[in-house]
Design brief:
Elements (H helix, E strand, L loop, with lengths): L6 E4 L9 H12 L3 E4 L2 H34 L1 H9 L1 H32 L8 H4 L27 H4 L3 H5 L14 H14 L7 H4 L5 H19 L7
Parallel strand pairs: 1-2
Length: about 240
Amino acid sequence: AALARPVVVFNFTRATLVTDDLYMGLLHAQDARAVLCVGPTAPKSLLLKFLLTAHEINTILVKQREQSTKMRDAGLLTSLRSLLSASTRTSGDSVSQQLQELSYQTQVLGHCFAIFSSSVLLLDDIDLLMHPLRSELHWPLGDRHSLDFTTAIGTQGASVAASAVDVRAHVSSSYVADSPVGSRWQAAFHLLDGLFSCQLSSGPAVSMFNEKASSAEVLQKLREVVAEGLQHKHLQSS
């Protein structure tokens, strides 16, 4: 029998106040082994809130260092006057209180991330969530590089289309119309070509290995299995 689990909906925006209630709610869900329903914008907003808070802390600290440098360069007498003025003391207390509050928020958000890190994530519509042009959770950064094994050895993905003719002269093992593609695509066409050759004429991926006895044995076993599948109507030939 299935065990009953509480279901908790987690909503968060960058305008949400970061308090103990936020962390305690997630902690209660973790202790209860609850199912936490989260939209794609909530974790992004949580991360952005943490980054913005950390950036704000860094900005305040930089301004404090700059102000200390100016006071040191202004001379002892001017620095004492500035320190003794009421406005400076009030401003310093306000900045100190703001830093304390921001530090508290980063600690709370850090505890929230720790809970998420120890949880099990189930993704729905993964094709949309991982789409770099549609999803807010997957954003490409850095230089553009080809995927692993998408281009032949000695070629680069960016120059394949522009100099395909020159590259073909140096590529001797291509299954796809003699194009300089890598083994990432070659393997798929090789498997499909072997399967289709059981009923159709052999394609280039199979013809390349005609001289190898082991390839002929593998193809013969594959043809026998396919023929048996067709005979028992487990496969369809058209």
